[in-house]
């Protein structure tokens, strides 16, 4: 191949004005913010798992039907789904390219959205079916 | 010059306009094994593993909400030896990802980057992960066994 210069501009001039590679620091930052928020929620989850391990379905349902348990559970599911979407996207970006990358990223988004929605819907169902004695007023 | 796309990336020119071959960046296999290498890639692997486990956990929550038949089916999967192994793996992966995540936040703040600090923290990470996941998994399995036994007898 002939070594001739086809583009007289310097590499800096070529890079200038094109903006960032994809986005700025938003993706990275969102991943960290999610991680920091998931920290205390994970510790809460560990305590709850130790409290509930080995109990029957009714006990666990009664636990999940209490708003002060359902709320952090829902929050954790949403945050975890978002955090795993961001993390898996980084992995996909590193190891794939072209249409394959687009397809994998779409799959990740869809799967994480589905997990968050399914978790949320399950909690709503548990709250709806909670024993009626609890729901006076 | 080669037609290989990757080879083409080695072609560069200096500020005089002279062509030169850029140095090849060192690859993984030229390095002696270090703990930090393994811990670095393990953070990524454990992240993916906890994501998979999390998907399964939400599925379990769905079966809890669905009904006693569905819940019984999910519990059979969880109590299966393979299910227990997967649960333990998920636990270890998540604990490691948690500890390694704290390390990453410390790095993001610009600390603990010195070579001896990285080696030191790496060993601590392994010990903390092993201890913490051992205690937690042991507690979960013992508690669930005791409570289930009490339920059957009572």
From TrEMBL, chain A:
Keywords: Electron transport, Heme, Iron, Membrane, Metal-binding, Transmembrane, Transmembrane helix, Transport, Tricarboxylic acid cycle. It is found in: Membrane. The chain crosses the membrane at residues 106-127. SUPFAM superfamilies: Fumarate reductase respiratory complex transmembrane subunits. It comes from the Bacteria. GO terms for cellular component: membrane. The keyword Cell membrane does not apply. GO terms for biological process: tricarboxylic acid cycle. One of its GO terms (molecular function) is heme binding. InterPro entries: SQR/QFR_C/D (IPR034804), Succ_DH_anchor (IPR014312), SuccDH_FuR_B_TM-su (IPR000701). Its main location: membrane. It is a multi-pass membrane protein. Its cofactor is heme. Pathway: Carbohydrate metabolism; tricarboxylic acid cycle. Membrane-anchoring subunit of succinate dehydrogenase (SDH). Part of an enzyme complex containing four subunits: a flavoprotein, an iron-sulfur protein, plus two membrane-anchoring proteins, SdhC and SdhD. This is Succinate dehydrogenase hydrophobic membrane anchor subunit. It comes from Brytella acorum. The gene is sdhD.
TrEMBL record, chain B:
It is a multi-pass membrane protein. The keyword NAD does not apply. The chain crosses the membrane at residues 41-64, 85-106, 126-144. The keyword Amino-acid biosynthesis does not apply. It comes from the Bacteria. Its cofactor is heme. Keywords: Heme, Iron, Membrane, Metal-binding, Transmembrane, Transmembrane helix. PROSITE patterns: SDH_CYT_2. SUPFAM superfamilies: Fumarate reductase respiratory complex transmembrane subunits (SSF81343). GO terms for cellular component: membrane. One of its GO terms (biological process) is tricarboxylic acid cycle. One of its GO terms (molecular function) is metal ion binding. It is found in: Membrane. It holds the Pfam family Sdh_cyt. Membrane-anchoring subunit of succinate dehydrogenase (SDH). Part of an enzyme complex containing four subunits: a flavoprotein, an iron-sulfur protein, plus two membrane-anchoring proteins, SdhC and SdhD. The complex can form homotrimers. Belongs to the cytochrome b560 family. This is Succinate dehydrogenase cytochrome b556 subunit. It comes from Brytella acorum. The lineage of its organism: Bacteria, Pseudomonadati, Pseudomonadota, Alphaproteobacteria, Acetobacterales.
């Amino acid at each position: 191949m002939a070594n001739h210069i086809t583009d007289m501009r310097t590499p800096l001039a070529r890079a200038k004005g094109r903006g960032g590679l994809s986005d700025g620091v938003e993706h990275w930052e969102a991943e960290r913010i999610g991680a920091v928020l998931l920290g205390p929620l994970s510790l809460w989850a560990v305590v709850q798992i130790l409290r509930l391990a080995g109990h029957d379905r009714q006990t666990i349902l009664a636990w999940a039907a209490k708003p002060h348990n359902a709320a952090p559970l829902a929050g954790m599911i949403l945050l975890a789904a978002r955090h795993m979407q961001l993390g898996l996207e980084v992995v996909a970006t590193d190891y794939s390219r072209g249409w394959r990358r687009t397809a994998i990223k779409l799959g990740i988004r869809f799967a994480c959205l589905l997990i968050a929605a399914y978790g949320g819907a399950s909690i709503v169902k548990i709250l709806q079916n909670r024993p009626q004695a609890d729901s006076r007023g | 010059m080669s037609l290989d796309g990757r080879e083409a990336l080695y072609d560069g020119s200096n500020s005089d306009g002279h062509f030169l071959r850029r140095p090849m960046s060192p690859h993984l296999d030229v390095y002696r094994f270090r703990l930090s290498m393994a811990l670095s890639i393990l953070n990524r692997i454990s992240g993916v593993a906890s994501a998979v486990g999390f998907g399964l956990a939400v599925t379990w929550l769905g079966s809890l909400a669905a009904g006693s038949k569905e819940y019984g089916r999910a519990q059979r999967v969880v109590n299966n030896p393979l299910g227990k192994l997967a649960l333990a793996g998920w636990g270890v992966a998540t604990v490691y990802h948690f500890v390694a995540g704290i390390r990453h936040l410390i790095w993001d703040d610009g600390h603990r980057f010195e070579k001896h600090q990285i080696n030191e923290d790496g060993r601590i990470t392994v010990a903390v992960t092993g201890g913490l996941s051992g205690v937690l998994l042991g507690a979960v399995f013992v508690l669930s066994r005791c409570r289930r036994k009490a339920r059957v007898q009572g």
